[in-house]
Specification:
Length: 241
């Protein structure tokens, strides 16, 4: 015999969470920066003819109670590749020193996923299977690795992250890894002379999600009952089984 589920087990947790800069601050005017005449040389915050390798946004959560990064949203303004299987790694770096330090975690997007999101004007959602423990400083970088893409070979790959307008973030919260593998801030000599932030929204929490329960019996007869205990579960909203 089978029994029909007629309700859900629900857990509502007091665990807090926050998504930084979401929605985008009203003082921001969102733009896309390109390089060369009418974008002939590519995108400042993405693929370009000087083969930039990564674009990274700096975040300082030291004033917040949260200790874990569960993922983030990225606003891409342009995305195209003839090979939708091309991989775009996204990374978390320790930002304790104010510049990208130790690599803390990485996962991978595909150009197909990004292209679909961009075409529908959606954020691209990045979620880690295991929440990333922030460094003690709670300062970190989120990076988009574009070195698998090419602007110099035809057909050109296109990828551009939306940002606010120059001067709306002082100093710049954006760094980039150059073709020589050195990190520079956008306002440093040899960079773009732009004081901006990228449209990236980290999702923070003060405890990772835990979903667990025990049951009073694993085998019951028709008409019997079973009790479930969800003690120990945590979640940022309501969890349904």
């Amino acid at each position: 015999d089978t029994e029909t589920k007629n309700n859900y087990i629900t857990v509502t947790s007091a665990v807090g969470c926050d998504t930084l800069n979401l929605p985008a601050p009203p003082a921001w005017t969102l733009v896309q920066y390109y390089t060369g005449t009418n974008g002939a040389n590519g995108w400042v915050n993405g693929c370009n003819n000087i083969a930039d390798r990564e674009k990274a946004a700096y975040f300082d959560a030291s004033a917040l109670p949260y200790t874990y990064l569960t993922g983030w949203f990225i606003g891409f303004g342009e995305a195209w590749s003839s090979n939708q299987a091309k991989q775009v790694p996204v990374k978390v770096y320790d930002g304790t020193t104010g510049s990208p330090g130790t690599l803390l975690a990485t996962t991978t997007l595909t150009m197909g996923q990004i292209m679909q999101d961009e075409s529908m004007n959606y954020y691209t959602d990045v979620i880690f299977a295991n929440p990333v423990l922030l460094p003690v400083s709670k300062r970190f970088f989120i990076s988009v690795d574009i070195q698998n893409l090419s602007w110099t070979a035809n057909p050109k790959d296109t990828l551009s992250i939306i940002s606010n307008t120059n001067g709306q973030t002082i100093p710049s919260a954006v760094w980039e890894k150059k073709a020589a593998n050195n990190w520079v801030k956008y306002t440093q000599v040899g960079a773009w002379n732009l004081a901006i932030s990228l449209l990236i929204h980290p999702i923070l929490t003060n405890a990772p999600t835990i979903a667990t329960y025990t049951q009073s019996a694993t085998t019951i007869c028709q008409g019997g009952s079973v009790n479930y205990d969800c003690t120990g579960s945590t979640f940022q909203d309501t969890l349904l089984w």
